[in-house]
Write a structure and sequence with these properties.
mainly beta, 5-stranded antiparallel β-sheet, 7-stranded mixed β-sheet, 456 residues, 2 helices, 6% helix
Length: 456
C-alpha cells in the first residue's frame, strides 16, 4: 500500500491533459489546411507566471516519408521531435471499433440504490474484471461491482467526517490497489482499500507558494493522476481585465503527494472572452466567445498531453514543463455559418421560459460574439492502457456518433474510431472501453464495450 508519509520515488512524469479555449487562426497558407508543420504553438515552458508564444520553425530538409508510415513527416524543431500525419495510416479493414452491444451494463431506472446513478464522475475496470464507479453526489462515494455487474459494496457517503465527502469530484485506482478520491468542497484527498476501509486523508486546501495567476492562493482542480501517485491539476484563470477579446491564461500543475510540492506543467491560453464594459449585469460585463476553442490536458504514466484546440497540434510535456515531442494531423477547418447561428438562437429562445432566462437572452442578443470557426477537436482526450492518445472530434448536433482520432505512442495518426454519442468514455483498455451511458430520459448507466482491433 502506498503510504503518503514516505518520500516520493524518483519516477519521471509521462502524460497529462489540459482543457481550455482559444480563437481560431486565419488560413495558415498550407493549401487551406490547418495543422500543418510550421503552425505556431502557444505554451510556456517552466514559467509559472506567464505564457508566451513559441514559434516552432520546422526544418523542411529533415522532412519526408519515413519508417513511421506513408504520409507521415518527421522533423526536428530546436531539438524537439515533430511528427505530422497528412492522412491516417491504418490499412483498410484495420480500423478499430466498439462492439455493437455492451458486454456489461450496470444501472437501472428504478430499483435498489446501488444501481441508481445520478452523477457518475468516473468508472474503471479492476484487474479481475470488476468495475468501480465513482459517484459524485446523492450520495457521494465509491461503488464496487463484480465482473457480472453485481453490486459488492459501497463506501464513502455524505458528510465531513473521516472517509466522507461533500462531493466526490474525481476518483482513481492507485498502483498499489487502493482507491483515492478528491473532494473539492472539503479540499482533501482520501484513500481507501478496495474492501472499503478508510486509510487516511490529506488536505490540499492550500498549496504553499501556489498562486493561481492573480486569482490568489488556493488549490487547482485536480483532474487526473500520474503513475507515481502525483496529481494533475488546473487553475481557474483570472477574469479579463480589458475590453475586447482575450484569453487569460491558466496553470496546469503537477502535485506530489504527500509533500505538496508542485511543478508547472504548462501555462496555456484559457477560454476566449469578449469584454465590452458597456453595462453591468449578466456575466459581470463579459461573456465567453461562443464556439471558441479551449486548451485540453490529460494525465497518463509520467508525462502530460496538452492541446489548444484551435488547431490539431498536441504536445507531450514533462511534469516540469519541458516539451518532449509535438505531433499533429491535417484537418479541414469548419466555419460557423449563418445557418448555424440561426439554429443556435432558435434553440436558445425555445429554452428561455422564465423571466430571468428571457432577460439573459436579451443580454446575449446585444453582446454575444461568435468564433469564425468551430474548435478543431473536442475537450475530451483519453490515453488508453497501451499509450495511444484518443482525441474526440467535434460532433454535430444531429449526429449520433463521436469520432475519435487515435495516435500511436510515436505520435502517428492511426485513424478514427466511432463511438455512440450517448456514451461518455471514462477508460480505454487494451480490449475494452468503459463509459457512462445517458438514455433519452437522461438516466445514467455504466457500460463496458469490447474494443475490436482487426489484424492488418
Amino acid at each position: 500500500m502506498r503510504n503518503w508519509t514516505r518520500a516520493r520515488s524518483s519516477i519521471c512524469l509521462n502524460s497529462a491533459a489540459i482543457r481550455d479555449e482559444s480563437k481560431p487562426d486565419a488560413d495558415d497558407g498550407f493549401g487551406g489546411m490547418r495543422g500543418s508543420p510550421g503552425d505556431p504553438v502557444r505554451v510556456t515552458l517552466s514559467m509559472p507566471r506567464a505564457w508566451a508564444p513559441l514559434s516552432l520553425v520546422l526544418l523542411s530538409a529533415c522532412g519526408g516519408t519515413g519508417p513511421l508510415g506513408e504520409g507521415v513527416t518527421v522533423t526536428d524543431s530546436m531539438g524537439i521531435p515533430v511528427v505530422f500525419s497528412a492522412r491516417p495510416t491504418w490499412d483498410q479493414g484495420a480500423t478499430w471499433s466498439l462492439s455493437e452491444d455492451p458486454r456489461l451494463s450496470i444501472g437501472t431506472v428504478e430499483g435498489d440504490q446501488p444501481y441508481l446513478f445520478f452523477s457518475v464522475s468516473n468508472a474503471f475496470l479492476l484487474p479481475d474484471g470488476g468495475v468501480v464507479v465513482v459517484h459524485s453526489t446523492r450520495p457521494p462515494g465509491f461503488r464496487v461491482y463484480d465482473r457480472t455487474g453485481a453490486h459488492v459494496r459501497s463506501f464513502g457517503g455524505e458528510g465531513e467526517g473521516p472517509g466522507e465527502f461533500r462531493r466526490l469530484w474525481r476518483g482513481w485506482l492507485d498502483d498499489d490497489g487502493t482507491l483515492i478520491g478528491y473532494d473539492p468542497g472539503l479540499g482533501r484527498i482520501s484513500r481507501f482499500t478496495l474492501d472499503g476501509e478508510f486509510v487516511e486523508s490529506l488536505s490540499v486546501q492550500k498549496i504553499p507558494g501556489f498562486r493561481t495567476m492573480g486569482a490568489g492562493d488556493g488549490p487547482p482542480s485536480w483532474i487526473g493522476r500520474f503513475d507515481d501517485g502525483g496529481l494533475l491539476g488546473r487553475t481557474t484563470g483570472p477574469s479579463p481585465s480589458e475590453n475586447g477579446r482575450s484569453r487569460p491564461p491558466f496553470v496546469v500543475a503537477y502535485l506530489d503527494l504527500p509533500t505538496l510540492k508542485y511543478d508547472t506543467v504548462a501555462v496555456v491560453p484559457g477560454p476566449e472572452w469578449n469584454v465590452e464594459g458597456v453595462e453591468r449585469g449578466f456575466f459581470a460585463d463579459f461573456a465567453g466567445v461562443e464556439f471558441g476553442p479551449t486548451s485540453v490536458a490529460v494525465a497518463h504514466d509520467t508525462t502530460a498531453f496538452v492541446s489548444d484546440n484551435k488547431d490539431f497540434w498536441i504536445e507531450e510535456v514533462s511534469k516540469g514543463g519541458v516539451v518532449l515531442r509535438r505531433f499533429g494531423r491535417a484537418y479541414e477547418p469548419e466555419p460557423v455559418t449563418q445557418e448555424n447561428l440561426e439554429e443556435y438562437w432558435a434553440n436558445l429562445r425555445a429554452r428561455s421560459q422564465s423571466d430571468f432566462q428571457r432577460e439573459e437572452l436579451k443580454w446575449r442578443e446585444r453582446h454575444l460574439v461568435f468564433a469564425d470557426s468551430y474548435p478543431v477537436h473536442d475537450i475530451r482526450m483519453n490515453v488508453d492502457s497501451d499509450g495511444h492518445l484518443w482525441v474526440a472530434l467535434r460532433s454535430p448536433g444531429d449526429s449520433d456518433i463521436v469520432e475519435w482520432s487515435v495516435f500511436d505512442p510515436n505520435g502517428v495518426w492511426l485513424g478514427d474510431v466511432s463511438t455512440p454519442k450517448q456514451l461518455r468514455i471514462k477508460e480505454i483498455g487494451t480490449d475494452a472501453v468503459v463509459g457512462v451511458w445517458r438514455d433519452d430520459l437522461d438516466v445514467q448507466s455504466v457500460r463496458v464495450y469490447d474494443l475490436k482491433k482487426p489484424r492488418g
